[in-house]
Amino acid sequence: MRDEQDGAREERDLRLLTASSALIPPPSRGIRRAPNTGLAVVSLGLLALLLWSVVYPNASIVIGSFAGGLGAWREFAASPADLDALRGTVIVAIGSVVAALLLGVPLAFLLTRTEFRGRRLLGGVATLPAALPPLVGVLAFLFLYGESGVVTRIVQRMLGLHEPPWSLQGLTAVIFVHAYTMYVYVFLFVSAGLERYDTTLDEAALGLGASRGLLLRRVTLPLLMPAIAGAMLLVFMSALGSFSAPYVFGGGARVLATQILVSKLNGSIGLAYVETTVLAVTAVVALLLLRRMEGRRPTAMAGKGRATRAGARSGAARTLLPMLAAALVILLVLPHLMVVLVSFARDGAWTTQLLPPEYTLDNYRKLATERALWRPITNSIGMSAIATVANAIVCFAIAYVVVLSKAPGRRLVALVAALPWAIPATAIALGLAATFDRTAPLQLRVLLVGTFWILPLAYFIRNIPLVTSAIEGSLRQMDPTLEDAARGLGASRWLALRRVILPAARPGLVAGTMLAAVAAVGEFVASVVLYTHANRPISVEILAQVRSLSFGTAAAYSVLLILLVLAITVGARWAGDSRPARVPAG
Fold it and tell me: How many other C-beta atoms can be found within 10 angstroms of the C-beta atom of residue 544?
């Protein structure tokens, strides 16, 4: 009898233990969680949105290039202008990478490895070209180094020449402009790598008898190669799809980005589709090749990352380095100062003089009072704000699905979200123009061309990879068990999202949306293809003012654009510092 009671008690205890164990959540085994129906719907919805806005327009371009069979492709292959444009595009991209490396790498070594007077000031000024929107930087170079530019006229008078000493046109001029605007990528990447560099490795190599050249070739550069390769990739992709510098300084030289616009304006839509396809394929192939080169260098640092700066050894170096730093500061600040100076020049008064002879506040007064001149400002602010808000919402959802869920289709979502970074802005713009030129519900088309909304859509698509990667970086630093703990304590999914996930994603969200807003407010490439008179942004209006020789008004717009970029940057820094996220990392 007792045995039967003991057996019944043990069976009851086993049932209670089994039932209670079902109430205890299993331990987290990594960043991936069990599938969730809501997240699956979100993932599929994001995939549908990306396929419609990113893949569909570009697929329309490729399909459209074969609309007449191979006729458009034969026309491209037989056209000397198009082949010259393809060759010019590759030359500009490679030349820009070489020029940016020649400027950025030595400057990074100078400011990171050497201590001298003025180093901190030069380090802060070295990133100033990044604050210039692309078209504003091109405009500054036009005022400084163009045929009637200030520097050109100074050199002409010093040498007593009747003609300008140079003509800032052609592929060399484009590479020259790119070198100034894109060396910042190399400088920042290599400087970051040198800050993590363990200089005791150099000491060990020198102690073993290695020369400075051998040390640089066998130790320093291999360890910095990931940073250099990343910078090269960024410069190459930026130069490949560059439009502003070739458009202003190209002269008779051609690149595909400008040739696409020429074909479109001439009514050769099929040829424009082929040129766009060739440019996009070239960009994707270059991306894959550079990624493969980067992946073949598995060099890693084994030290503790102690980086030191050495002072100048000789008296001549201690004297010359501050002078060199001062000269570089002036050279880097000069474009900004020139734009500000010209913004006060009276339109039409600056002809053959070295500097503008008359100065006035009328340029800024006109921007503030004339409705036609104020309209591009409100357009740019409104369209960039709409695109940035959309980027913040959609890209946060993409990052959450990719990093913190096991939703179906998340890998495809991540792949499509990165696609706009490999496609030049000209190709994206022409794809939107070809796809959303009419309303056809069965073809998933809606008329956007000629409306206000086409440019915010272009800005949104262009900045998807930028914002998504920034948010993903923050979410990957979060301990994934924090959300499980919040849900286990009774928090709803919305409360856990608001109190746990968003604070963890906040640094990347702020940084990504800041960069997206800066890029959108000064965007020119997609704008010049898609704008109408009613929604023209600041960048297009600057070009229109330059064409009408209203240099003062164009410079005033440029100064306002720089101030908008600075305001966005300061506002993002304030938003990032006002409530710092305190979510433990994994």
Answer: 16
Nearest to 130 by CA among 569, 583, 452, 576: 569
- Under DSSP, the state recorded for 129 is G
Sign of CA dihedral 471, 476, 482, 484: positive
Question: Do residues 377 and 422 both lie within one domain?
Answer: yes
**What's the predicted TM-score (pTM) here?**
0.79
Tens of each residue's pLDDT in the chain, 586 residues: 545 555 555 455 434 334 433 333 444 444 444 456 777 888 899 999 999 999 999 888 888 888 878 888 998 899 898 899 999 999 999 999 999 999 888 888 888 777 777 777 777 778 778 777 888 888 888 888 888 888 888 888 888 888 888 888 889 989 999 988 888 888 888 887 777 666 666 667 666 666 666 666 666 777 777 778 878 888 888 888 888 888 888 877 889 888 888 888 888 888 889 988 888 888 888 777 766 665 555 454 444 545 555 555 566 666 777 777 778 878 888 888 888 999 998 887 777 777 888 888 988 998 888 888 889 999 999 999 999 999 999 999 998 888 888 888 888 998 888 888 878 888 888 889 889 988 988 888 999 998 999 999 999 999 998 898 888 877 877 766 666 676 666 666 677 777 777 787 888 888 888 888 988 998 888 898 899 888 899 999 998 888 888 888 999 999 998 888 888 888 877 776 655 444 444 4
Is the separation of the CB atoms in 183 and 103 below 8 Å?
yes
User: How many structural domains is the chain composed of?
Assistant: 2
Tally of residues, the chain: 586
Using CA atoms, how far apart are residues 368 and 560, in angstroms rounded to an integer?
Answer: 11
| CATH label of the domain that carries residue 378 | 1.10.3720.10
Provide CB contacts within 8 A for 14, sequence distance 6+: none
- Gyration radius from the chain CA atoms: 28
Which DSSP symbol is given to 440? B
Given 308, 342, 368, the domain boundary residue is 308
Cβ pair 113, 320 in contact under 8 A: no
For 534, which DSSP code? T
Contact 224, 186 (CB under 8 A): no
Structural domain range at position 482 = 31-57+360-586
Among 266, 288, 308, identify where a domain stops: 308
Question: Other CB atoms closer than 10 Å to residue 498's CB: what's the count?
Answer: 12
The DSSP line for 315-352 is: HHHHHHHHHHHHHHHHHHHHHHHHHHHHHTBPTTT-SS
The DSSP code for 249 is H
